[in-house]
Structure formats: C-alpha cells, structure tokens
Amino acid sequence: MAESVAEFDLIARIRTRAAAWAGPRDDVLLGIGDDAAILRVPDGHDLVVSTDTLNVGVHFPSHTTPFDIGWKALAVNLSDLAAMGATPAWCTLNLTLPESDAAWLGAFLDGFVELAARHRIALVGGDTTRGPLSITVTVHGVVPRGAALRRDGAQIGDEVWVSGTLGDAAAGLTRSSPSPDGRGVGVRGDSPSGPGVDDHLRSRLHRPTPRIALGLALHAIASACIDVSDGLLADLAHIGEESSVGALLDVEALPTSRELVAAFDEITRRRLQLGGGDDYELCFTAPPDRAEAVLAAAKSVRAQVTRIGRIEAQLGLRLREADGRIVDAPVLGYRHFDAGDAGDAPA
Ligand code: ADP
Ligand code: MG
Q1: Is residue 62 within 8 Å of 72, Cβ to Cβ?
Q2: Residues within 5 Å of ion ligand 2 by Cβ?
C-alpha cells in the first residue's frame, strides 16, 4: 500500500527537495516556509508571470507516470516564458492530490526537479490540497526592460518561423495507450514504424523541451512570438489576431521528424502538424532582412528553425498546398469548452 503522510509532511518533503536543487539564487530572499516568498527583481528588468494547470484525464492521460507529470507541469509553463523571451527565475506549485502518496510525490518531484535544475528556476512556494489530481504551476521570469517578445508585433511582409518539428506530440498521444490492433490511428499501411519511433513520439508528448535559450536569442530579432501549445494554426491565429494581420503558410515547408514520417501517412501527418497541440515549439515572425540573424541566433543555441510562411495584410490563415493552390486554413486545434473534445488537452 502507498505510504500515506500528513499534509505538513508532504510540504516538508517538497521543501527539502526545493532546497536541494535550487542552488544559491541570491534573488530569493525568502523561499518556502513563511506565509509568502520574498523575491527581488533585478534592476532594469521587467517581471514576466504565467500560470498553467494540468488536470488528470484532460491534460494528460491517467496512465501518465508521476515523473512525466512533474516534468510536463513545469515544462508547459517554462514554454510560456520562452515565448516571451524571459529568463526563468522562480515558480510556485499548487498540488491537488487524491491521496497523500509519498512514493508518487517523490517520482513527481524527480521529474519536476530535473527540469527545474536545468533552467535554474527556484520553487519558492505553493499550496497542497486534497482532491482529483490537478497541478498548477506559476512561473516568474525576468527580461531586460522592454525586451519581452509579444504576440502583437507581427508586421505585413514578415516571415513566419517555427522551431523544432511539428506534430510529434499529437502523434505520441495516438500511441500513448495500446489500441485494439496495437497500432494506433492513421498509421502507415505500407511500412511498420521502426524501432524507437513510438518512444520518440511519446517522449515528445510527455517531456516537451521548453525553448528558453531560443526565446532569449530572439530578442531584438523576432517581431512576435508564441509557443505552440494548441496547434500551429490555432497559435499562429493568435499572433494574427493580436497583430491585426493574416498569414500564408507553405505546407510543404513544415518541419517534420523522421519518426513522424515513419509512423503516419501524409494526410494524417499534415493534420497532426497543423492542428495537433502540445509541441511547445516557438512560432515567431521576423522581417525578411533579419533572416540571417534568425539563423545565426538559432545556431548559437543549437536550435533548429524553419521558415514556413509569410505575414500578409489579409486577415486569417491560408495554406499553400504542394501543387501551389492556396486554400483557407481549416479550423483546427484544441478548444477546452467545445463539445466532443477528447483525450489530451494542451495546457
Ligand atoms: P499557509 O497556510 O500560510 O498558506 P501552507 O501550510 O499552505 O501555509 O504552506 C506553508 C509553506 O509551504 C508556504 O511557504 C507555502 O508556500 C509552502 N508550500 C505549500 N505547499 C507547497 C507546494 N505544493 N509546493 C511548494 N511549496 C509549498
Ligand atoms: Mg496555503
């Protein structure tokens, strides 16, 4: 049976782990243990704050491991800081747990801490309650005054870029639990996926990589930026709305992992890449004469970036198909309050 511990003991365990990994951050004047934390924003910087909740059965399948839940709860939040071009500094953790299971908490903290240590983000507080499994993380980052990347700066004529590859996480979701024929949906009929394909796709779903270094490298280069959590079309549409512009995307240009190619036919792949959420890549815009600067910035942080389209005056999103035809983009992407949504929702 799981080892059950009192709430204050759970908090003590969290506090011990937080102290062990945070390392010295001299901007944490007071961390876990008082009624509130005291933090010092460095001179000449703006504070950037974001929060996201993950609910079991909505944002992650119930069979997700506690390590992956811990990783992902922080990763989706760090991704929002990446999209703002902010450096992570501090976070809080609101945990609602169905039972006080010390082993579960330990594994959860392993995942959370591993990612936190990589980005030197300190856990400075939170709350612990009982109820259906739900995790809310709030992250705080800093950015030199006025330098944050926003959604509202895209200009007509700018090029649209995306980091990494698209569609892998959504593909991983279709492989995350065994389907009746053991193959998932939309799988290529001609070639069975090779070794490691499903592992790669699933790890893209469960352990997203927040593109913090890329967001920082894009200061003074990108005109607008967003992280791809709801799907490329849905998120690029947000840039369009906030910037009062539209975009034309070249579907042939979408960056595609070889694992995705191995696993799915082209039509399914396209749907996953345009509409699938949870990639946590950055989608950003930059003037065409800054293309070399974009490539150099990406290279400096060893990030892959791909040019996928252009900002236009005409509102809405359009796709250039392989044969050159231009069509209106379909309405894809996750909406939390639409009827009929199922499975894994992005944060
Ligand atoms: P209060 O009743 O004053 O809100 P709590 O007992 O909720 O205090 O929390 C005590 C301390 O532990 C506070 O510093 C709080 O921020 C911290 N804390 C509680 N739960 C968590 C958690 N899940 N993660 C990190 N810190 C936590
Ligand atoms: Mg409290």
Answers
A1: no
A2: 127
What does residue 194 show for φ and ψ, rounded to 5 degrees?
Answer: -75, 180
The residue behind tokens 């690029």 is: 236
Q: Is residue 9 lining ligand 1, measured as CB closer than 6 Å?
A: no
Query: pLDDT digit of tens for each residue in the chain (347 aa)?
Result: 456 678 789 999 999 998 877 667 899 999 999 999 999 999 999 999 999 999 999 888 888 999 999 999 999 999 999 999 999 999 999 999 999 899 999 999 999 999 999 999 999 999 999 999 999 999 999 999 999 999 999 999 999 999 999 999 999 988 865 444 434 344 443 344 566 888 999 999 999 999 999 999 999 999 999 999 999 999 999 999 999 999 999 999 999 999 999 999 999 999 999 999 999 999 999 999 999 999 999 999 999 999 999 999 999 999 999 999 999 998 765 555 554 444 466 66
Q: Give the Cα separation of 284 and 296 in Å (integer).
A: 15
DSSP state of 199: H
Query: In angstroms, what is the span from residue 168 Cα to ligand 2's centroid?
Result: 38
Ligand 1 atom 9: residue of nearest CA: 127
Contact 298, 163 (CB under 8 A): yes
User: What gap in Å lies between CA 75 and CA 77, rounded to an integer?
Assistant: 5
126 ligand 1 Cβ < 6 A: yes
Pocket of ligand 1 contains residue 95 by CB under 6 Å: yes
Name the residue with the closest Cα to ligand 1, atom 13: 33
Residue nearest atom 3 in ligand 1 by C-alpha distance: 35
- Beta carbon of 69 within 6 Å of any ligand 1 atom: no
Q: Whose CA is nearest to atom 5 of ligand 1?
A: 127
Q: Is the CB of 6 under 6 A from ligand 1?
A: no
For residue 176, what is the DSSP state? S
